[in-house]
Specification:
Radius of gyration: 37 Å
Largest sheet: none
Strand content: under 5%
Number of strands: 0
Structural class: mainly alpha
Shape: elongated
Distance between the termini: 93 Å
Number of helices: 32
Helix content: over 70%
Length: about 550
């Protein structure tokens, strides 16, 4: 558990009136330290001893032990009877000299005003727990329980301790016990909701609605209610709650982060980005905000900025945070759009290694690489998916992979920066694979026009001079299939034009090479079919004119 959270468990007290809601303390206990600090600073004139104590606690949590000591001393000077500042100072003695520290804390616990003061006894127990004095922790916890058998503060302490050990289920159970002991005391509901918001958000919502029934104005409710709705995917509801309670000047960084996340996952990327940037002005190293900012840059297609953001994100100290698969895929996507494909593939590999959802990730990576202008590499990842499916892949997945391969072949041939021989070889490999892929579609669904259409196109690309006619059987099969459909000339006009244009040109080359009348008749027939669909087609007109002209006229034209 984080050191500051263990320290946090050390020092949470509940004010002078048992179970009276003290917002400063409540914010402190729920780790909203900025808000707690503001409240206690504003109450310094009203209650200097209490305010000094909590400001000392916040300083201690933040690692400023000298400032913490100064606050405790100031609080003790303001009110020597306020025992909590004595406890705060005794902690320093316990750290320096355990025997002397135990003596000092024991004396505080035995003072007449403190013997049955459960808040003070629990504060002492927490100090012992934090400093690893287990026997004295247990002893002081027993004294606190004896002093107030039905106090919710005892199970609250147990819950805090279990939470510090990351036993969230056990902690939640103790908070439930605290609620049972005093159903009007609101803080245990909030502490339980902090846990349930992530592991059982619907139950957290139920708890928080109970809080609203008791006190509809209690300000801690909204943050965790918004988070709980966010965690069940009710982003609009979460945003609506934030809109009512969030204040850019007073809301904590955690609340800002929750709000920004709800905006992001509602695809309100510009609003999310604006809020994230404000949060990063306050906490430039915030792990989650930097993650969301990187994600937003990708979604808004700000790839150059995204690269800078991604490199910053992956240079942040991890601490208690962990990378997730989406972090790596986002970085990889940004790299691919910046044409840094080798680095992108390294990040994709990391994402694949750490996820259990490898199949869907293969597909997602393939789709992103196609968008980034790398359809051939995208097809490689799609092929990983299809192979992993072991024959169970959907036909549309074969279609997607086939189109990526076809697009990759076309692109590399057109790329003037690539050696022509190399381009031809790579393109040929893509086309052969694409032909096999579309062949799977035609075998699976014989009445699927797209399978035959793309197989014809692929084979036309494999025979760019149209001398072998490798595309001819597929265009003819497609023609037969289309003509068996209802209203073929209306529904498949574009496809029919493509078929007729290929076949008319193929037969023209055959006639030009062999001079057979049958080939000539086919050219004229298919050209007329083109003109039926497109009367202004110039090529069809030229072919008919060339092949129907009188021999003498044709000879004159040749001269």
């Amino acid at each position: 558990m984080k050191r500051y959270l263990i320290s946090f468990c050390v020092s949470a007290l509940f004010g002078s009136a048992a179970f009276a809601q003290n917002l400063g303390v409540d914010y402190f206990l729920t780790e909203q330290f900025d808000k707690a600090k503001d409240i206690f600073a504003s109450k310094m004139d009203e209650n200097p001893a209490e305010s000094s104590y909590y400001l000392g606690e916040i300083a201690y949590i933040m690692g400023d032990t000298a400032q913490a000591r100064a606050w405790y001393e100031k609080g003790l000077a303001a009110n020597p009877e306020y025992a909590l500042n004595k406890v705060g100072l005794a902690r320093f003695l316990l750290k320096a000299d355990q025997k002397a520290g135990i003596k000092a804390l024991t004396e505080i616990s035995k003072e007449k005003a403190n013997k049955k003061n459960v808040e003070v006894l629990i504060a002492i127990a927490k100090v012992y727990y934090a400093e690893g004095v287990a026997a004295m922790y247990e002893k002081m916890l027993a004294s606190a329980e004896k002093a107030a058998k039905n106090s919710p503060l005892v199970p609250m302490l147990r819950g805090d301790v279990l939470k510090s050990k990351e036993d969230m289920g056990g902690a939640a159970g103790e908070y439930e016990q605290a609620i049972n002991l005093n159903e009007k005391y609101l803080l245990p509901y909030i502490k339980a909701a902090q846990i349930y918001a992530d592991i059982n958000p619907n139950f957290a919502i139920e708890k928080l609605n109970t809080v609203l029934e008791i006190d509809s104005t209690y300000p801690l409710t909204n943050r965790y209610l918004a988070r709980s709705y966010y965690n069940i995917g009710h982003y609009a509801t979460s945003i609506s709650i934030h809109e009512k309670s969030f204040n850019i000047n007073t809301s904590g960084i955690g609340e800002l982060t929750d709000y920004a996340a709800a905006l992001f996952f509602s695809q309100r990327y510009n609003e999310a980005t604006e809020l994230i940037d404000k949060g990063l002005q306050r906490d430039s190293l915030n792990f989650v905000l930097n993650r969301l900012r990187m994600y937003s840059a990708l979604e808004t297609q700000d790839y150059a900025t995204g690269l800078t953001l991604a490199e910053k994100f992956f240079s942040l100290p991890l601490g208690h945070n962990k990378y997730i698969s989406r972090d790596y895929t986002t970085y990889a996507d940004i790299l691919s759009f910046n044409k840094l494909i080798d680095r992108a593939k390294e990040q994709y590999a990391k994402a694949i290694e750490m996820t259990t959802e490898k199949l869907e990730l293969y597909k997602k990576i393939g789709e992103q690489l196609n968008k980034a202008g790398y359809p051939g590499i995208g097809a490689e990842y799609y092929n990983m998916f299809i192979e992993a499916m072991g024959g169970e892949a959907d036909t549309k997945d074969y279609y997607t992979m086939g189109t990526y391969l076809y697009r990759a072949a076309t692109a590399i041939v057109r790329d003037a920066t690539v050696d022509s021989t190399y381009a031809a070889n790579v393109a040929h490999g893509y086309l052969v694979k694409a032909d096999t892929t579309f062949g799977t579609i035609t075998a699976r669904i014989p009445d699927n026009t797209l399978g035959f259409l793309y197989r014809a196109r692929v084979n036309a690309s494999l025979d760019p001079e149209t001398t072998k006619g490798t595309a001819k059987p597929y265009y003819e099969a497609l023609l037969n299939l289309i003509m068996s459909k209802e209203n073929p000339t209306q529904t498949y006009r574009k496809e029919l034009l493509e078929i007729y244009q290929y076949l008319s040109y193929y037969y023209y080359l055959q006639f030009d090479n062999k001079g057979k009348d049958d080939d000539k008749a086919q050219v004229i027939a298919y050209s007329n079919k083109i003109l039926e669909l497109n009367p202004n087609n110039a090529i069809a007109k030229q072919l008919i004119e060339a092949l129907t002209a009188a021999p003498e006229e044709g000879k004159k034209k040749k001269k």
